[in-house]
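Lecture notes, unit on protein representations.

Consider one protein chain, 229 amino acids long.
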Amino acid sequence: MEKNEILIGRQVDKGDFIVEEKYKSVGRLHAKITLKANGVYIEDLDSLHGTYINGSRVRSKKINRSDVVSLGGPDYYLLNINEVLRKLPLSDEEFSLKVSELKDIYNDYQSESNRLQSKMQEDMMTKRMLPTILLGAVTTLATIFVGHDSETKTIIAIGGAILSILMFVLATKWASKSSREMKEKLNRLNEKFELDYVCPACGAPYRGKSWEFVRRSGKCPACKREFHL
């Protein structure tokens, strides 16, 4: 098999596209996708149940990423074209282009991460302090306009202290819930970043390395493939 080809089936070699054994209508060696100068082609390898493009059975046909490709029947096993194409080798030009796209991925991540962390700190401070400030203001106004004798003022002060404690506990729980939600968003952002900020050729993660470091290195630290930006 040439380097620009990917075999598809239930019993193909590691590195090709393996379909799970439970899909019995997909052949052991079912089809082949080839990257040519004028596009991507799929070829059925004499499978019993056929290869289908947008519902029509084909022997060999040029495909686009938007095409619906099914193996073993018109709607039997829907092939994820993008997953298959990711297994094909990148040209030097494609590799360099995809590396350059990592700049936006890195900058967008840094911007969103900083925004979420700042918002989390602001929310924590606001939600803990605001109820206490409001309660203090209400207690002060009550003291001024309701009670003038020392006994009334004492009752208001004690009631205000008790309410302050309750409000502080509630505000802390409120702030903690908000903090957990923001941390979940940060975790999801970090997970997405770890999946996206990787070498386009070998998939090695670049987390912990700034875009400037990657750019200046001129090659992937893992697979050593060079790029030109």
